[in-house]
Amino acid sequence: MSPWAPAALEALIEEATVDAYGEDEQLTGFFTMIEESLAVPFTTTVLGVEVSVVGVDLAEDGRVVARCARGSVRQDIGILDLPLPEPAPEGWQWIEAYRYWAR
């Protein structure tokens, strides 16, 4: 559950999608805001394993993904499924807005 009030999330959604026509352009708007605002790298835990989130990308299937690394192993994880650490990194509010929009 997001600590953000729906009105605050809706304001972020409006900012990310203001000039977007259709869902594909809206998704691109969210990706751009996340990519520009999220402070990377940061560490989080995925399935009990500590990983470093080194960036974000827009996957061919249309998902926004977090580029995760652990040593030499790399894996993309859908940003909707990415657990955020405490404290969350700067720019995390865009992930929360994207999650709210995607529901």
Specify Rg, calculated over alpha carbons.
Answer: 13 Å
- Portion of residues in helices? 25-40%
The residue ranges in which pLDDT falls below 50 over 5 or more consecutive positions are none
Strand-pairing-aware structural class: alpha+beta
Number of domains: 1
Side-by-side strand order of the widest sheet: 1-2-3-4
> How large a portion of the residues is in β-strands, by DSSP E?
25-35%
Average of per-residue pLDDT values: 93
Principal-axes geometry comes out as globular
Number of strands: 4
Strand-and-helix sequence, N→C? HHEEEEH
Largest sheet: 4 strands, antiparallel
N-to-C CA distance: 12 Å
If you had to describe this structure to a student in words, what would you say it looks like?
Pfam families: Calci_bind_CcbP (PF11535). The chain is globular, with a radius of gyration of 13 Å. The longest helix has 16 residues, at 22-37. The protein has one domain. A hairpin with a 2-residue loop joins strand 1 and strand 2. It has three helices and four strands. A four-stranded antiparallel sheet has the order 1-2-3-4. With 103 residues, it is of the alpha+beta class.
